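Sequence, please.
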């Protein structure tokens, strides 16, 4: 974990995504909803990381957002970004595990989670988060998904090892229905969303390879990251992140 945090701390984001697609997903909710005053929305960003999407959402809505993560340096970064963007009064950070939230039930208008719900499992996470959502409230999540029923063998072996629960978009939509949500829309994140995430990661790993040049275990750990990066470069048409926007 020490090496993991050395790679990730201080990076602009902790997974594929970008502000354009965050706002695209938010606009799907706003187009379907009847919020009389956006400032009155009660929103949760769960698994917020350093808050790239938290800031984008707060700028768009100017509402109160609770940002939850269990890694304090990420929350410190959220606070820093909020202050820099004059949003400190809009964003409250809480250090909690996403599967044991100390929040009031049925209190949230919108729940947001980009690239984090896998920590609980897609189905389990949707069921759990629903208990905090107001009746007919909204939830938007991005999830690693197969874009094909027959992925290349090399790719399938890699993700069967690293995320065996990955489902196709169609399978995830069935899970959404089974857990009591109505799907408003889903869309794939573009390959550029991965570039925004992986370019800083590659730069950081290159720096760390110099620092740990005599440490074979660390170098092997970094090599695994390079394999992950190469997978998306080779097979971006077969898998990636998809946004799922739902109403409870």
């Amino acid at each position: 974990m020490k090496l993991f945090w050395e790679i990730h701390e201080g990076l602009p984001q902790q997974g594929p995504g970008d502000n354009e697609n965050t706002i695209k997903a938010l606009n799907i909710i706003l187009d379907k909803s009847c919020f009389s005053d956006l400032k009155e929305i009660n929103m949760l960003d769960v698994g917020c990381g350093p808050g790239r999407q938290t800031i984008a959402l707060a700028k768009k809505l100017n509402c109160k957002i609770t940002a939850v993560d269990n890694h304090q340096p990420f929350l410190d970064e959220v606070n820093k970004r909020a202050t820099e963007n004059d949003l400190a009064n809009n964003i409250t950070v809480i250090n909690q595990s996403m599967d044991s939230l100390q929040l009031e039930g049925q209190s949230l208008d919108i729940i947001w989670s980009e690239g984090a719900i896998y920590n609980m499992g897609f189905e389990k996470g949707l069921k759990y988060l629903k208990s905090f959502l107001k009746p007919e409230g909204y939830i938007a999540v991005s999830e690693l998904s197969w874009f094909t029923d027959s992925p290349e063998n090399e790719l399938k072996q890699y993700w069967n090892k690293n995320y065996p629960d990955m489902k196709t978009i169609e399978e995830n939509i069935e899970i959404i229905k089974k857990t009591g949500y109505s799907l408003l829309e889903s869309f794939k994140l573009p390959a550029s969303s991965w570039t925004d995430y992986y370019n800083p990661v590659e730069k950081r790993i290159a720096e760390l390879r110099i620092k740990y040049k005599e440490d074979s275990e660390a170098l092997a750990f970094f090599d695994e990251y390079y394999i992950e990066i190469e997978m998306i470069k080779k097979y971006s048409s077969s898998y990636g992140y998809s946004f799922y926007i739902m109403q409870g």
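The chain has one domain: 17-191+237-247.
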